[in-house]
Amino acid sequence: MPTDATRADVQRLFTEGAQLVEVLPPAEYEEEHLPGAINLPLKELSRQAARRLDRTRPVIVYCYDTT
After folding, report:
1. Cβ atoms of residues 20 and 34 within 8 Å
2. Which among 9, 28, 42, 61 could disulfide-bond with 24, CB atoms 3.0 to 4.6 Å apart, if both were Cys?
3. How many CB atoms lie under 10 A from the CB of residue 40?
4. Phi/psi-derived region of residue 4, left when phi > 0, alpha when psi is between -120 and 50, beta in every other case
5. In whole angstroms, what is the distance from residue 14 CA to residue 10 CA?
6. Per-position DSSP letters for 2-59, written without gaps between them
């Protein structure tokens, strides 16, 4: 179930083993992303792409947007 998280929540979850997923297009991901993040572009998100995730660990999904 999706929930909002503060920066402190994200830091805690990540240090506890959560997976960090960046949903921007690959070119933007390559330009800049958080260390340890994997790229699953939102426009390409599918069951097959989601198989890259470990279902036993929490998932943090984020997208940097300046608009």
Report:
1. yes
2. 28
3. 20
4. beta
5. 6
6. -----HHHHHHHHHTT-EEEE-S-HHHHHHS--TT-EE--GGG--HHHHTTS-TTS-E
Average pLDDT score over the chain: 88
Closest by CA position to 64, among listed 36, 18, 31: 31
For residues 22 and 39, is the Cβ–Cβ distance under 8 A? yes
Report the predicted TM-score, pTM, of the whole model to 2 decimal places: 0.78
Collapsing DSSP to helix, strand or coil, 67 comes out as coil
Chain segment 28-42, per-residue pLDDT in tens: 999 988 889 999 998
Inter-CA distances, 52 with 11, 24, 32, 38, 47, Å: 21, 16, 21, 9, 9
